[in-house]
């Protein structure tokens, strides 16, 4: 383990102030207030599954919760359950309950509702900044910087030119649509030789498209909540891609812990691993690292993964 550096803003990454504001701020996470502690959220990107993207619901719920606390407190953890499939044809209502407001910690309960029924519930805890002499963190993995790596779109083009990698590319296409407001760069993209021997681990650099700026740290946390669900559960499928195709995959729950300030429009390393899969479920853990080696966010998720064998196995 190593001691974390001072949580200063990262240098590099992100876009200059003259560029367009990130659509994550202007649209996806821009909730419409309807009443006190009641908000309406709309959809920007709907996956090919025609179910609502879980990261959108988590991010919007955190926006709603953050609007009910004072400026001097920031989210340190959230714990969520997806209880029903979301309908992409109608907006989502977010109801906030002020469970507790204390001197150091405040807790908010958020319920996301469609058609009069909850589709998602979330508890978020906020804390006033409190210095502590007790500090430690793991060391960030040594990986190439994002500037040296292929963009996700370029990697998919590469897969398309190799018929034996096209089955792997099918899953990638779902998360590489141009309208997705996130950029990613895979650290160790699979090759033909490694596809059959992949571990349930992956790392990729990720950032929000567009410019967010220094702004409110609460907004960067909400953007990270959106990002954190992106390709996360798919980590559990990596050792099995060559043998099975996904028939059904949805998140059941999602948890996050926020450790240090960060910029969600700067490149961060997303380190993902799946310690277990079974019973038609998969468990994944994740860590978001700033480029300067500071551990910014930790994540965990369990989801349903139902698979079907390929009609003809991928020949490697």
Automatic annotation (TrEMBL):
Which GO biological process entries does UniProt record here? acyl-CoA metabolic process; alpha-linolenic acid metabolic process; dicarboxylic acid catabolic process; fatty acid catabolic process; fatty acid derivative biosynthetic process; long-chain fatty acid biosynthetic process; negative regulation of glycoprotein biosynthetic process; peroxisome fission
Q: Which residues form the Acyl-CoA thioesterase 2 C-terminal domain?
A: 197-304
Per UniProt, the keywords (alphabetical) are: Fatty acid metabolism, Hydrolase, Lipid metabolism, Peroxisome, Peroxisome biogenesis, Serine esterase
**Domain of life, per the record?**
Eukaryota
A Pfam family of this chain:
Acyl_CoA_thio
Q: What does this protein do?
A: Catalyzes the hydrolysis of acyl-CoAs into free fatty acids and coenzyme A (CoASH), regulating their respective intracellular levels. Displays no strong substrate specificity with respect to the carboxylic acid moiety of Acyl-CoAs. Hydrolyzes medium length (C2 to C20) straight-chain, saturated and unsaturated acyl-CoAS but is inactive towards substrates with longer aliphatic chains. Moreover, it catalyzes the hydrolysis of CoA esters of bile acids, such as choloyl-CoA and chenodeoxycholoyl-CoA and competes with bile acid CoA:amino acid N-acyltransferase (BAAT).
Q: What is this protein called?
A: Acyl-coenzyme A thioesterase 8
Query: Which taxonomic lineage is given here?
Result: Eukaryota, Metazoa, Chordata, Craniata, Vertebrata
